[in-house]
């Protein structure tokens, strides 16, 4: 038969292994999603047919379907990098806020 101490040790070891396993699965996923979002202060470059074009400090042009802004406005763009850290061309504008 099993002794009480043996069962207690098994249960404790089992929970330690399960917590370690869960941490290995959860923490990389949570940490990975945070780093793919970033912001950029940009200027409205052009508004044409419902498409607003923004220019960032590096000279990249970004299009977004909106007519809320006019040429010369300063805005903060919230981006997601589509999990490609080195390729800016596939980044997506998630949100825009006017900078006063």
Give an overview in words.
With 100 residues, the chain is of the alpha+beta class. The protein folds into two domains: 34 residues; 62 residues, OB fold (Dihydrolipoamide Acetyltransferase, E2P) (Beta Barrel), CATH 2.40.50. Helix content is 31%, strand content 36%. The chain has one helix and five strands. It has a five-stranded antiparallel β-sheet with strand order 3-2-1-4-5, with no helix packed on it. The longest helix is centred in the N-terminal third of the chain and has 31 residues. It is rod-shaped, with a radius of gyration of 24 Å.
The secondary structure category is alpha+beta
User: Residue share in helices?
Assistant: 25-40%
Given as residue ranges, the uncertain stretches (5+ residues, pLDDT < 50) are none
Main sheet characteristics: 5 strands, antiparallel
Within the largest sheet, what's the order of strands? Answer: 3-2-1-4-5
Strand content: 35-45%
Please report the first level of CATH classification, the CATH class of the largest domain.
Answer: Mainly Beta
CATH architecture of the largest domain: Beta Barrel
Which sequence of SSEs, written as H and E, runs from N to C? HEEEEE
Which word captures the global form? rod-shaped
Counted by DSSP, the helix tally is 1
Supply Rg.
Answer: 24 Å
What is the first-to-last residue Cα distance? 75 Å
């Amino acid at each position: 038969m099993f002794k009480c101490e043996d069962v207690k040790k098994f249960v404790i070891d089992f929970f330690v292994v399960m917590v370690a396993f869960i941490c290995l699965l959860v923490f990389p996923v949570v940490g990975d999603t945070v780093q793919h979002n970033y912001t950029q202060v940009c200027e409205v470059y052009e508004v044409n047919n419902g498409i607003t074009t923004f220019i960032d400090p590096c000279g990249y042009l970004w299009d977004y379907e909106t007519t809320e802004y006019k040429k010369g406005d300063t805005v903060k763009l919230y981006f997601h990098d589509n999990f490609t850290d080195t390729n800016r061309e596939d980044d997506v504008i998630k949100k825009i806020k006017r900078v006063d």
